[in-house]
Amino acid sequence: MRRSVVCVVLMLGAVLATAQVVPASPPAVLWLAGDLHLGLAPKPVLEPLRGLLQGVGVLNLEGAVAEHPPRAEGLRLHNHPKALGMLKELNVAAVGVDNNHKLDAGRGSWDGTLQHVAGSGLMALAGGGHVARLTVGDTRVVVTQHDLTGGVPRDLGRDLTAAREKDVLLVALFHVSTPDSYLPPPVLKRATTAATEAGAAVVAAHGSHMVGPVVWQGNTLVAYGLGNLAFACDCTREKDAMLLRLHLAAGELRRVDVVPIQAGLNRQPAKPHPDPAALVALLGALGSAPMTLQGDHAVVQRATASAPEDPPR
């Protein structure tokens, strides 16, 4: 009997010695950026950011996509279809086209924008009808974008609830066209409330051309302004901007990084921010969640259950 027990123990030891421990999947990255206007021809305005654009990217494409520029007077933004190719090379998977410049090439250009975006291999984000369903590492994500130029869409809550499926992480993007401000306008606050009620894990906004506070509202991470990314026109002066880097694993948001950048304006290239600490300090002064600066980025600390954050006033 004793001999049998010894044999079993030895066999069990051999099995345990040869067994391989399967490590947990490392977090994968989904990054979000603000407003991008490419203009007439391709130009590598995002190339200096290549090292920061690792993972799967989503940004707002400001203006219609058309081969010929609009002839109407005033500010009219458009992007040549050939300029979209470089976005795929920089890991961009989806672009928001639902913004206040979407019809700048004429009302008939909307279908063309959707066709050109699809033809470039990207996904278009627009209202409730065009969402991006992505797999980032082992996490399924759905990304939406709504334009708030005319106010909060009547069906916003229903759109977001319909987009979110079981075990799918919802990222809700909003475009605002209110006067430039560091603080969120009331329309964005109302839309953010609808998104948190729909179960969004992340809410991010652009369109104001300025950075905004980064806060936790319950379990939802809210970035009230990502700022500019790059513009081919001389039509905005705001250079301070950021990328929002979301580390995802096992269907959860594991970590959030704020990556300070300097927007590329008037066809100049976007760059890593020359003073990341200054931008992080600005975000702190605006009421953002505490952040820990780590070189070229800052890690956003989570709100505690006993002290949940409120939206900035």
Topology of this structure?
Layout: H1 2-18, E1 28-37, E2 56-61, E3 64-65, E4 78-79, H2 85-89, E5 92-96, H3 109-119, E6 123-125, E7 127-136, E8 139-147, H4 156-163, E9 169-175, H5 186-197, E10 202-206, E11 214-217, E12 220-223, E13 228-231, E14 240-249, E15 252-262, E16 271-272, H6 276-285, E17 291-294, E18 297-300
Parallel strand pairs: 1-2, 1-13, 2-5, 3-4, 5-6, 8-9, 9-10, 10-12
Antiparallel strand pairs: 1-14, 7-8, 11-12, 14-15, 15-16, 15-18, 17-18
| Average pLDDT reading | 88
CATH architecture: 4-Layer Sandwich
DSSP strand (E) fraction?
A: 25-35%
The computed structural class is alpha/beta
How large is the radius of gyration? 22 Å
The number of domains? 1
Q: Tell me, what's the shape?
A: globular
Distance between the termini: 76 Å
Briefly characterize the structure.
The protein is 20% helix and 33% strand.
Your description of this structure?
- The protein contains six helices and 18 strands.
- The protein is an alpha/beta fold and 313 residues long.
- The chain has one domain: Metallo-dependent phosphatases (Purple Acid Phosphatase, chain A, domain 2, 4-Layer Sandwich), CATH 3.60.21.
- A hairpin with a 2-residue loop joins strand 11 and strand 12.
- The chain is globular, with a radius of gyration of 22 Å.
- The protein starts with a helix and ends in a 13-residue tail after the last strand.
- About 5% of the residues have low confidence.
